[in-house]
Design brief:
This protein is α+β, with helices and mostly antiparallel strands and 589 residues long. 51% of the residues lie in helices and 18% in strands. Helix 7 (150-162) packs across helix 8 (166-174). It is elongated, with a radius of gyration of 61 Å.
Length: 589
Amino acid sequence: MSSNIVPLQKKGTNSGSSDTNEETRSAEPESFSGQLGELRRLIVEPEYRKLSSLEEVVGSVKEKLDDLPTTLGDALPSAITRSSQKDNKLVSATRPVVEKSIFDSVQRNPSVLAEALFPVFGPAIRKSISEALGTMVESLNKTMEHSLSPKGIGWRIEALRTGKSFAEVVLLKTLLFRVEQVFMIHSSNGVLLQHVESDLVKSKDPEMISGMLTAIQDFVQDSFTTEESGEKASLGSLRFSDFVVWIERSPDLIIAAAIRGNPPLSLREVFEETTEQLQHQYQNELDNFSGDTSIFEGARPVLLECLRYQVGDNEKKKKSKLFSPFGLLSSVLVVALLVAGFFYVRDWWQWKNYLSRLRSEPGIVVAEQERGWFTHSIAGLRDPQTQNPDELLAEFGFGKEDVVSNWREYQDLSPQFILERAKKVLNPPANVKLAMFEDVLVADGDSSAVQWFNESRKFAPAIGGVRDFALGFDTLKRFIESSTVRFRCGTLEYLPESQATLENSLPAIEQLIASGKVSGTNQVITIIGHYSKDGSDQVNSRLSAQRSEKVRNDILSKSPKLVQFAGNLVSESADDKSECAVSLKVKSQ
């Protein structure tokens, strides 16, 4: 279908017009070439040219945006300077942002601001503390010097009479000099630029004083300038009774200081340096001064540094040594030493007695101790059965916070502590008494103690200081003699319970014979056979003898330890007609 399109020809076109549009067509897209391209060009050419213009505008704006940081960086400082000179609108506008930024910075990381301000705050704080301490020491020294002396009493009377404070009277009487007021005056027109005064001075009209000084200065210059030298005379100082006014000049400034007393010449150097500093600092403001004194507010801290004073003895008079500062200070030191000595000796005596008590206390071993100025320390060993050393502190005037104690537990092998431990471990019945014989724990009681002994015997070796555990002689004797071995009548057969009775008596028999050998006594156990009333006496007598011999043989067969002591077991027959049994009897030989 596109092949049937007939090319369009413009009427009135010539070679000149085609040459004119050649450059435009060359810049057009390739899709505009040919007849179809010509048609497209006629349709979209206006929009295409608008897009091309818009692209040029965007490119220009982009170039300007790229150059914006440099342009803004060059223009911003001068703009801020002009705005601050014009008014405070920029300050008011940026204040909330700056305050919020500082607040957020401090909340996020306070150390940043602290490190930044440290070089400023550190010297300022040290200087403030130094000045405060110096003032306090000086005030204390003067108060001590004059409060109790006759002259001080006179000054107190004067303070009551005049209505002034005692400190003010002392200052006036002992003052060598004090700079009470400092004036900063423009030398050309005599305008008072700044004025500072001491806290004890109430100036009524600084402007009038400034004008008077200027008038006097002009009078001196007009009256005493010599024609030969051509130099203008200047006023250096004025004296009024106990006041002196020192005047320092620079090309544009006059610094005048009203001083009470007799200032040293070295003080002039302070005013000279102040005058030079202010002249240099406010050179432009002084040259272009138009009557606004607020621009010199920054000079106040410099002028305040000139408000100095010095106190001392204005009168050469003998002072009582008793009430002199040195005497009072010496007295205070002596009293302090006496008080400190008293507490030191008392503490030493209490500590010595406390150590003596601990060393004499059984179950406590003091390994090391140290007496300090405020706290003492002690360490050692302590048996749990003894009294707690910390409970003895109050007895000697110490609190638990005064002594650092380090006690380690140990087992004291003294008999009294071994017995206390044995009572806790073995828990003997009320009728049993424990005793120590060398390293053997001995239990004494009635025959019922044997059963407890047999049950507790296995725990005894766990007690520190106990090598062996044994029953006492009386207990063993009572237990053995209470043991009765019963038989069936007319036979040599044990009753059921007799076998257990015989076995329970064996340990007691062994201990009794062994303890006798240790103590040097011979313990003999007689085994006595008995018979009942039934049957003939001849048969029963023979049966009782056989029963006693049977029990003796069974004892030797069940206890190998007793074989070597077989002679300590004796059997015999009794003539009584009591029961079918065998009894035991203990005899010491």
